[in-house]
Amino acid sequence: MISEQFREGYLFFIDGDFNYAYQKFNYLRNQVEYNYPQGLSGASCRRMYYSALYLKELCAIVAEAYCQYPFWIEAKEEVTVENMFTIFPNPANSALTITSTDAKTTNYQIISIDGKIVGQGSFNNNTTIHVEQFSRNIYMIIFSDENAKYLETQKVILQ
Prior knowledge:
Elements: H1 2-14, H2 18-35, H3 43-65, H4 73-78, E1 85-88, E2 95-100, E3 105-112, E4 117-124, E5 126-130, E6 137-144, E7 150-158
Helix pairs in contact: 1-2, 1-3, 2-3
């Protein structure tokens, strides 16, 4: 199920149909969260899942850049979810400070626009990440809990 949904979303993404790719990746995320509340056990499935989360966010950015007016905006505006994590400054030059509303251990992955993991780690409540070595670009930070359950994704701009 996970690989087939990922494949379909990826094919939409490659074809430049970012709205449908977003929808597929979002559906995959919802299905995984519903069917696997303890998180995914297989490493390849987890990698596809996190790639889908990243590509979902990337689809939203690219669709906006190419003026493909997303049809999912109404659904996003109806539900306002308070972020668990605050990242500042954003845009950043040399360091990012991340704070959490939860004191539990949180894992993070920093993913470049081309889908490569360029940084990762864990923290409790807050941390500072030095990003001088990263190139100027847009990055996604994916947060997960100790059991590798997805918590949140945020976009960061390094300048």
